[in-house]
Specification:
Growth Hormone, Chain: A, about 0% strand, single chain
Length: about 160
C-alpha cells in the first residue's frame, strides 16, 4: 500500500472495527498484537504469498491504530495542554523511528530480513504492557461512544 492509501484504509476500517470492541484500549491492544504477530510470522513463514497477506494485515492494523490512538489521546488531554502533549508524542514517535530503523537495517544486513522482521515484531511487543496499564485505568474517555449500556458505564474522574 502507498503511504496515502494506508491511513485512508485504516480510517475507513475504524468504524467497522469499533463495533467489535467497547473500549479504545481494547482496539489498541488488538492492533498491537496483530502487528507483532504478523511481523513475526513474516520472518518465520518466509513464503511470498503468506508474507504479502501478513504485510496487508500489519498495514491495516497499523493504519487503524492511528485514528483510534489520536481519539484516545485527544479525549485524555485537557484542551490547553493538547498541542504540547501531541507534539511531544509525535516527537517521540519520530525519534523511535529514527533510532530503530537503522538498527533494524543493521540486523537485516548481518542476519537477514527474516530475523529483522522477527526482531521488529518483538520490539512491537514492548508496547503491550503499557497498553494494558492504560486499559486498567478504566477512564470514561476510553469508552467508544454508544457501546456501553447504563449498567456498564464508567464513573467520571
Amino acid at each position: 500500500m502507498t503511504d496515502a492509501a494506508e491511513p485512508i484504509a485504516g480510517g475507513l476500517a475504524v468504524p467497522w472495527i469499533g463495533r467489535l470492541a467497547r473500549r479504545r484500549t481494547y482496539l489498541l491492544i488488538a492492533a498491537a498484537v496483530a502487528t507483532a504477530v504478523s511481523l513475526i510470522l513474516i520472518g518465520v513463514i518466509q513464503r511470498f504469498v503468506a508474507a504479502v497477506a501478513l504485510l496487508v494485515v500489519w498495514a491495516m492494523a497499523f493504519a487503524a491504530t492511528l485514528p483510534v490512538r489520536q481519539a484516545y489521546l485527544n479525549a485524555q488531554i485537557p484542551t490547553r495542554e493538547r498541542a504540547t502533549v501531541l507534539s511531544f508524542d509525535n516527537m517521540l514517535t519520530s525519534a523511535g523511528g529514527s533510532a530503530f530503523q537503522p538498527a533494524l537495517g543493521r540486523v537485516a544486513d548481518v542476519w537477514g530480513y527474516a530475523i529483522s522482521y522477527i526482531v521488529t515484531g518483538a520490539i512491537a511487543c514492548v508496547s503491550l504492557p503499557f497498553l494494558w496499564l492504560a486499559r486498567r485505568t478504566n477512564v470514561s474517555q476510553d469508552v467508544i461512544r454508544g457501546t456501553l449500556s447504563a449498567k456498564d458505564s464508567v464513573p467520571e474522574r
